[in-house]
What we know:
176 residues, alpha+beta, 434 Repressor (Amino-terminal Domain), 6 helices, 3 strands, elongated
Amino acid sequence: MSKEKLPFMGLGSHLKYLREQSHQSLSEVSGAVEIDENSLSNIEAGKARPDEEILLLLISHFNIQDREAVQLWELADYDSEIPEKIRPDTDANNQKPVVMLLAPDGRTIYSDGVEIITNNAGVTINFTQLQSPNKTSSVAKVGMSYDQAHEVLKTLEKALLKAKYLNSQKNLPAET
């Protein structure tokens, strides 16, 4: 594919540069913004443009501020206006925007394994299922800060203790 047919090459190159400067792998960044690695690879190669929500997550993930965030938005060439959360003049208190993605359904997916990746941004947990004797596939990825990871660990420990000691049914003595 020639460079003329890659309209998002500038955007992709800039995002790849940011990822490499933060010493993160495709897997880490794709896990943090909840897209698959191939999609992120295509975005970085200029072959695809991320959805507006994904670009906002990438801007937040890399902690991009002011003019650079606006520049990325302009490189994406969306039909919509620049969101207020990345406009330099709307962030008077220097507060970081919070972006949250909610799961589209409430189904429980069970996993056979887990991979945990840590970096400067925090922790990414990749839950996997065994597909064949030599192949696993990702069923869910969750990214979080180190503080949140510590809270998750405490909550998990409490839940396991409750399950072990409080959830066993106690029978009343038989009547005689």
